[in-house]
Amino acid sequence: MKDLLQRLCDAAVKRGASFAEARVVEAESTGIIRQDGRADKLNQSGTSGLGVRVLKDGAWGFASVSDVTADTANIALDDALNMAEASSTRSTEARMPTIASLTDNVPARAEIDPRTVKVDRKMAALGGYEQAAQAWAGDKLANSIIGYYDRFDREIVCNSYGTYIEQEMIRTFLHALIVARDGSVLQRGKARVGACGGFELVERTSADEFSVKAAKLAVSLLTALPPPAGKFPVVFHPSITGLLTHEAVGHNAEADSIINGTSIISGRLGERIGSELVTIIDDSTIPDAWGSYKYDSEGTPGERRVLIDKGVLTGFMHSLETAAKMGVPANGSARAQSYNNRPIVRMSNTFIQPGASTFEEMIRDIDRGIYLKGGEYGYVFAERGQFTCHAGEAYMIRNGELAEQLRDVSVTGLTLEALMNIDMVGKDFEMKMPGMCGKDGQGVPVDNGGPHIRMRELVVGGRV
Amino acid sequence: MVDVDYLEKLASIACDAAIASGAEFADVSSVVGRSLRVDLESNAIKSCSSQQVGSIAVRAIVAGGTGWSTSDKLSEESAVEAGKNAAALAKLAEPDPDFKSLPAPAEYYPDVKGLYDPQLASFDARHIIDYALANIDEALAVCPDVNCEGGFSVNYYQESFANSLGILLTDISSHIGGHIMAIVKRDGDVGSFYEFDSGRVLADFEPNGIGASAARQAMQFLGARKLQTKRMPIILGPLASRSVFEAIVSAADAEDIQRGRSFLIGKLGEKIASDAVTIGDDPLIARGLGSRRHDGEGVPCRPMVIMENGVLKSYLFSTYTAGKAGVPPTGHGTRGGSASPSNIVPGLGTKTAAELIAETQDGLYINIGAIEPDQTTGDVSATVDFGFKIENGELAYPVTGTMIGGSFLELLANVDAVSSDYRYEPGTIMPTVRIQDVLVAGGK
Questions:
Q1: Rounded CA separation A163/A19 (Å)
Q2: What pLDDT shows up at residue A178?
Q3: Residue A29 CA: distances (Å) to CA of A9, A149, A417, B88
Q4: From start to end of A246-337, where are the E strands?
Q5: What is the pLDDT of residue A65?
Q6: Can you give the pTM of this predicted structure?
Q7: Residues B176, B241: one domain?
Q8: List of chain B residues whose C-beta atoms are within 8 Å of the C-beta of residue A38
Q9: Chain B stretch 286-315, residues whose beta carbon is closer than 8 A to a beta carbon of chain A
Q10: Are the CB atoms for B370 and B194 separated by under 8 Å?
Q11: Which chain A residues are within 8 Å of B91, Cβ to Cβ?
């Protein structure tokens, strides 16, 4: 394989490419869905293929094939060069940095490689989670789904710098959906757990911190009230802090959106853009974290990247190309979903650093506000900095104390206003939001989190 | 490119291998295709990509338990291995007594015209690059300081579908499309908007005007203001109204109903929306973006009414959910379990979109913003991503920091008009919808 990929890169350079990359990804995955008492849906998938990326005359071309032979690799190279030549009509004038080559071989980190665990053992574990959740929900249970997924990836990055990185990754993920019913009222609770690691995740995850948590939430929401509408002081649980960090800041700090001018923080490097209580990090080096990796899909080592330091915008996430364009070192943020995608700038594990406040201090002087918990999803229009975060669970804050439970709460805000409005940052920390982030049609594993934070005001989309 | 006979052979081999390995039922989808894509950034070409795809996906069933195996290698060896693996997993899966059978071959499969354009199978990347650059140029002509990003793509797929009861169907499909997000930044203010066009055949794709339209509308979103929280009518433009119709159809998936997790449980035959709301699902529209002659399980498709004058008329059934309910499948099955609608066709009203706006004194117009409920609870809490305040019958100014909330069923009951005019993309009718008395949360 090494010879084939190096020959491909050499051939690309001989044919006029200023940079060439041949990337092979092999993946194996297993998924199990247990629903309403039966693990009746099992799946396994195996994929592999080659992606070839070339830079010629400032223009990018990319091509992929799923059968990797000398013939198909040459076809992919022809295709990639054709694509680059076609793009050169009016390209973004891409360029790459001059860097030293790297060679490494990174084996998968997993205490229990899920490929060695029989499917029936995986099924049995799901049964335990489901039974515990069902027992807790009792006659309120309407529907239960417990899902399991593991994936092994081997990614080989070979490029015209002479870099040759072979990296293996194992990820394991659990998710639960419990629906509770009381008369005509339906509510649901969700939980998820994910790690860069193997089946030990399942062995270490108790039903109480996973499926039972989802069941408790679903049942408690049956009597929760719809949220009020308007502008309120809000306190975010770490799961919502994570969503805010990812959506409102993370996407805006991807260097490609800075260079192309679509980020709300383009041109603001070195400026204060948030409260001095706010420090935001993207870190792909955290051991076992869902969004971690040693090398990105360009073969650059992952790093801890400080995006905002005490409110001041200090850096971005970079690919080789964005680093070259901005004259800084690359920091290992170029990720590709699979062999048939080109690497683009992505987040990994993104979070706000803990501060000094306690939760009690945050709510103490709020007369009427909202505590948002149970982060579910979010999105952003980066160019305007307008973000939305959705919480599956929330509470009213009345006279400095938590009051009635609320359900289905979304909040919206503008990134720059929101960052300035953070007036308290908790001393706690939690990062348990493993998920897939979508960008340009590619999904990659990311996590996000932080401490509890307080924001002076935010718009809540309510019903009353 | 793989020929039709070989693709059908792979599907049949995989199906036979699953049965020979102990599966009671099996179905297989073997797919080959090509995709070309141009990504745009900063008014130029960011990258051009070519992707050859191929896959064999086998579903095997033993006593209702299901095993899937997928490979992306189009070879007889891979087909046999995928069939064997799927059967082995199905044998491990726990039995599901609610499973009855996969579908038998139908006597008749409808013929849907215009789902494949041979020109697109061999389309040159330079053509879509020309389209993309022309749209950037027209955007710049409208607004010299516009910043365009987006993408144009051409796809071609050929699928052979076989099942162990004798179904063997091969379909070819193509698609061409493009979208532009135009961004205008002036004095610290930002306006942006999205425009697109697409078609199954080249003749339905209008390559001109996407960039100019996006740029014109982006400029209109400069100067956005915040609103005060109050109740008012909202008017959903063509790109926003789709989310309402799609949410109704999506919640009518019989799988969600039977599993007890849809807010439409027990609503069949009931009036749950105003008289103004009628929704059909028509998979047989020639050249329709969502058109197909059979569903993902090989059941022939047919047009049907899902909601008529506010009354929920049908759920969407796969063979599994239909077998469980003791009714015929409706042609919405997928092999993954959930139902898949085709072209959603809303019924139209008598007033134009312009008339609906003109008779609204104080309201909110939503250009883009998914008014989607939680599929289980039916609660809505959504951001107005792109919207205008309506004052005295006119779009007055763009809004920011605005949300709407409520019960989706209450919103449906308050729909007082669907426009007579609409935006049309092949097979897709997108009218304007007005909903009275909605709680709009603002940041003022």
A1: 12
A2: 97
A3: 30, 7, 42, 16
A4: 280-283, 304-309, 312-313, 334-335
A5: 93
A6: 0.93
A7: no
A8: 65, 94-96
A9: none
A10: no
A11: none
